[in-house]
From TrEMBL:
<dbReference type="Pfam" id="PF00753">
    <property type="entry name" value="Lactamase_B"/>
</dbReference>
<dbReference type="InterPro" id="IPR001279">
    <property type="entry name" value="Metallo-B-lactamas"/>
</dbReference>
<protein>
    <submittedName>
        <fullName>MBL fold metallo-hydrolase</fullName>
    </submittedName>
</protein>
<dbReference type="InterPro" id="IPR041516">
    <property type="entry name" value="LACTB2_WH"/>
</dbReference>
<dbReference type="InterPro" id="IPR036388">
    <property type="entry name" value="WH-like_DNA-bd_sf"/>
</dbReference>
<dbReference type="Pfam" id="PF17778">
    <property type="entry name" value="WHD_BLACT"/>
</dbReference>
<dbReference type="InterPro" id="IPR050662">
    <property type="entry name" value="Sec-metab_biosynth-thioest"/>
</dbReference>
<dbReference type="InterPro" id="IPR036866">
    <property type="entry name" value="RibonucZ/Hydroxyglut_hydro"/>
</dbReference>
<dbReference type="GO" id="GO:0016787">
    <property type="term" value="F:hydrolase activity"/>
</dbReference>
<feature type="domain" description="Metallo-beta-lactamase">
    <location>
        <begin position="38"/>
        <end position="214"/>
    </location>
</feature>
<keyword id="KW-0378">Hydrolase</keyword>
Amino acid sequence: MNLVFDKVFAPHYGEAIDIAPNVKRITVNNPSPFTFHGTNSYLIGKNSLALIDPGPIDEAHKAVLLRAIGGRPVSHIFVSHTHRDHSPLASVLKDELGALVVAEGPHRPSRALHLGEVNLLDASGDTGFMPDIRVDDDALIEGDGWALRSIHTPGHTANHVVFALEGSGILFSADHVMAWATSIVAPPDGSMSDYMASLDRLLARQDRVFLPGHGGPVTRPKTFMRGLKAHRKMRERAVLERVKRGDRTIAEMVRVIYRETDPRLHGAAALSVLAHLEDLVARGLVQTEGNPAVDGIYW
């Protein structure tokens, strides 16, 4: 199944854009190869509000959020995961707004670090984050005219969670499913086996549209997620093929598998290959001498 990305997106920096009844999107002006045009924050409600993914510490974005809130009460700040482009502003706004911060839990890796391993993603993690409410899977939190259901979706991070707006068919998919690109799954923060299982969880749902953490909406979620699964299986086959052809390092694999990818993303690509290798080793399809690592030689 072909995976077709949609990169048409106008961020409208400095504005709160109406995208559904009582749902506004505000995009942070923090574009990069990893954030696309920037991080999307969402305001939900009419008289009393919820905020999803407030974003990084950014005074201009904070000012736009407060202007869009317009003095209305904000009861909850929902955080999908603890990467620094999504969560740090929560700790600032909770004090100013008197809101409760809701998330799956604090930042943590998907697995324990191996002996001598360094977490290359430490700088991207909001390691000081601690929610007021650690939300369970399939929990429902209700506000004034809105209700959000949590669905735990580990994979991109161990604590990744998406939120469904009850009765609307809208799911805020954060970094798990985005229309413009595949999600980065990078150990030890991420886990490929967890990511694939989380895709299956969302495929079993009947959501009408996904509103992601970066870029525009996913308008045909089931079709797109089937494409994501097929894409990951294709990458898995490519990794196995490079092993069979004699590649002994991830760097060798990346040069071939990602030859048409922006070189600035090759570091992330190497971590994605590592995620596939860890999954393949766990399933007994590849054997290595020691634990796979980005800079290691395995067989």
